[in-house]
Design a protein that fits this description.
The protein is α/β, with parallel strands linked by helices. The protein has twelve helices and ten strands. The protein binds adenosine-5'-diphosphate (ADP) and magnesium ion.
């Protein structure tokens, strides 16, 4: 990040420019429209929730925001500048994410996983890496120190030397968050950060997301767990069949009959573990299990 970029960012923030502005994002796969004309703005200091039944297009929307997919239509602006749909450009512009299926380097330590996230902000060029001169070593030390700080921040300070694949599932999720934070983002996108977590870990995740917000980042969270989302978010969007069905405060979204209907409607193919369909009480008090397999570190 150059000084010029930094001052541009600050000016945009002062002018009230949203951190994120997605406009008319549409993603089609052949005949299937997974995301249809979705617009969303996120302002500094906001935690925004994205809910909706399985297959609603939530992850696809994140993929469009972060350059994994090139949207069929629409644009994505970060702090007032359009960002090209390329993962690296998106990270450099200041947007970082975690994945619904954890993507860590299983054979690397927790610290090394976070250091990988950091490299997009250090000047370490291939040349200095090969020579391993003093400049390289200095940067490497700074990267290591910053990675340790981030592990402390997410509550994994003591796990720095553990291999990612040996860490408990909840810790792997927090490690992914630390790696995302290592890129110095202005906006963090979390795709089902509490999937597979027990209630205590879920509470810790909630505290961590507030801490991230308090340290100056905006956050967008995809989650199935309604209680978690409504306690956490300033604003919630409910996506159904690729479209925004309702947007508003947690109170507004929670009490909207269309949202309840959307979840019950999805119950035909979304069954609980015991095979019973999800009932209405699950919508307001749900700690709905994610339907994703929890395979953990995979790379
Ligand atoms: N790469 C892809 N190719 C084809 N269809 C896809 C692809 N990615 C997602 N989809 C489809 O888009 C729809 C939305 O999926 P997804 O975004 O994963 O939903 P959610 O995250 O809300 O559960 C689903 O019907 C899914 O099968
Ligand atoms: Mg998803």
């Amino acid at each position: 990040m150059t000084a010029v970029d930094q001052s541009e960012r600050t000016a945009a923030e002062a002018a009230g420019t949203p951190v994120l502005q997605a406009t008319g994002v549409t993603m089609r796969f052949g005949g299937l429209t997974a995301v249809n004309d979705v617009s969303m703005s996120v302002h500094e200091g906001e935690i925004v929730g994205l809910i909706g039944p399985n297959g609603a297009g939530k992850t696809t929307f994140f993929n469009c925001l972060t350059g994994l997919y090139k949207p069929t239509e629409g644009r994505v602006d970060l702090l007032g500048s359009q960002i090209p749909p390329k993962p690296r450009a998106v990270v450099v512009a200041g947007m970082a994410r975690t994945f619904q299926n954890i993507r860590l380097f299983g054979n690397m330590t927790a610290l090394e996983n976070v250091m990988v996230g950091r490299y997009c902000r250090t000047g370490a060029m291939a040349f200095t890496s090969i020579i391993r001169g003093p400049k390289f070593r200095r940067e490497e030390e700074q990267t290591r120190a910053r990675a340790q700080e981030l592990l402390d921040f997410v509550g994994l300070g003591k796990s720095a030397e553990n291999l990612a694949r040996n860490m408990p599932y909840g810790d792997q999720r927090r490690l992914e968050i630390a790696r995302a934070l290592a890129t110095d983002p202005k906006l963090v996108l979390l795709d089902e950060p509490t999937a597979g977590m027990n209630p205590r870990e879920t509470q810790q995740a909630s505290d961590l997301i507030f801490k991230i917000r308090d340290s100056g980042m905006a956050v967008v969270v995809i989650e199935h767990d309604m209680r978690f989302i409504f306690n956490l978010c300033d604003r919630v969007l409910c996506l159904v069949r690729g479209e925004v069905l309702v947007e508003g405060t947690p109170d507004k979204v929670q009490s909207d009959p269309r949202v309840i209907e959307a979840y019950i409607g999805g119950a035909e193919d979304d069954e609980d573990e015991d095979g019973t369909a999800v009932d209405e009480s699950d919508v307001s008090a749900a700690s709905d299990e994610s339907h994703e397999s929890h395979e953990g570190a995979t790379e």
